[in-house]
Every structure is written in C-alpha cells, then in structure tokens.
Amino acid sequence: MRLLIVEDDDAIAAPLLRAVQREGYEVERVAAGQPAIDVVTAGGVDLMLIDLGLPDMDGLDVCRTVRAGGYAGGIVILTARDGELDRVVGLDVGADDYLAKPFSLSELLARVRALLRRAHRPAVVAETVETPAYTGPDRRRATLSDVPSAAPAAPAPPAAAPAEVPAPSAASSSAPTASFRVDRAARRAWVADQELPLTAKEFDVLALLDEQRGAVVTRETLMAEVWDENWFGSTKTLDATVGRLRQKLQDGLAPIKLDTVRGVGFRLEDA
C-alpha cells in the first residue's frame, strides 16, 4: 500500500511519517498542494492524508482536482478546522474521512486501515488479522459512524479469491442483469469482468440502491443508512457521492442507470 502525506508542518509530518512507516506502508510526503496533485496524477497512490492549510493552495482544491482527474483512492483530511461546515465541504469535494487536530495517531491509523479494507484490498485485511495491534480503540465508534459495520466484515475479503469473483454466491450478490453485479460480502461491484473503482461511501450507496433495484430510495434513507441516522444539515455530500457514482457507472458501461427522482430520492434500474 502506498500512502501520500500532504503536510507543510514538519513537527506534524515527521511523527506521522514514522508512524505510517512502522505500519509497513510505503509512504511519501510533500509539503504543498501542486506537488500532491502531480504525485497522485502519476498514479500508484492508494490513500492520501492531507492538511487543508497548505502554502500554495487550499487542501480542498487539491481534493477537488484529484477527484475530477479520476482518483479513486482514499482521502483523509487532517486539519485544525473542525466546524461542521468545514467537515461537510470536505466530504462534498471527495474526502472519505475527516480528522480534526489534535488527533490520536492510533485512531488515525485505525481509520486508514478501515478505508484500505473497504477499498477491497485483501492484502491489508490479511495483515490486519495477523497483527493484534490493528484492533482500533473503542472511541472510534463515537466519531466514525460506519466503522462498527465495517469492522466485523474485515476477514471476509481474503476469501474472495480471483477465481471466485466471476461467480459470486447468490446470497451475497444481486444480479438481475448478467453483466452487472454487486457482491456485498466482498464489497465489490463488477461490470462483466471489470471491477468498478468505488470509494467506501460510493459502494454503500450503490449496494443500498441495488438492494431495492427499480424502487425509489429516499434521500433521508440514504443519509441515515450510509452516513448517520442523526445526520442534521446539508445533504450535498450525498449529491456529490451520487454524482461520482453515476459517472463511474457510465464510464464502466454498466447496463444500469442511476436516476434522480426530483424531491424524493434516487432509483437504480436496468438500462
């Protein structure tokens, strides 16, 4: 796994770099926004840890730019801006998680492992099972709403060997259309033999819509199930996630369409 740290403060970057390296990840650090964009564009970055207060540009613009360029890896924002509006905007521009400074290194590393697990990378899951230190602190449940559901499923991906992918079990996959299928157990979506590069939230939205294929799923249901039942405020993050998901389905030539039902919610149906 290759991680990119985008942080201009040496006092923060140095211990963070050492902590990530101790976990066995390959890691690179840059101190400004444009170099970060260049590294991500060159490819090979699985997850990016980014500060918003960069010297040459705002970290939000970096997130927006790399997502627009097709980057499908994880993005975790690390910042002193801890207001609700800042968190919402960060998620809107493509971040998968948001951690306010000061933060615990153990909690950050737990969130990194969770994102990499949910990005369908079996090697990370296998390593997590073998290393007791990978069990994150209980306080994660209070700040990261999707971790409790993700944690029990951690051992599942290693069983999803490549040979089994073309024929997922009926219990874990729904496939009314032969060339498109969603495997909930492995947290993977396929068009023919090509896997769609989905983020954790994009997969959760797709799985929920696919579960009720042809029916309208309300915005309130999606926010409660995918984000937090106590979510209160803007739902623009849902629109941003659906927009990216729709584009990936179109780019992957998926034989389904994701429609917006104005004023109600969204519907996934066969094209």
Automatic annotation (TrEMBL):
UniProt keyword annotations, A-Z: DNA-binding, Phosphoprotein, Two-component regulatory system
Q: Which SUPFAM superfamilies match?
A: C-terminal effector domain of the bipartite response regulators, CheY-like
All residue ranges annotated as the OmpR/PhoB-type domain in the record: 172-270
**Domain called Response regulatory: residue spans:** 2-116
**DNA-binding feature ranges:** 172-270
Region described as Disordered: 130-178
Per its record, how is this protein called by name? Answer: Response regulator transcription factor
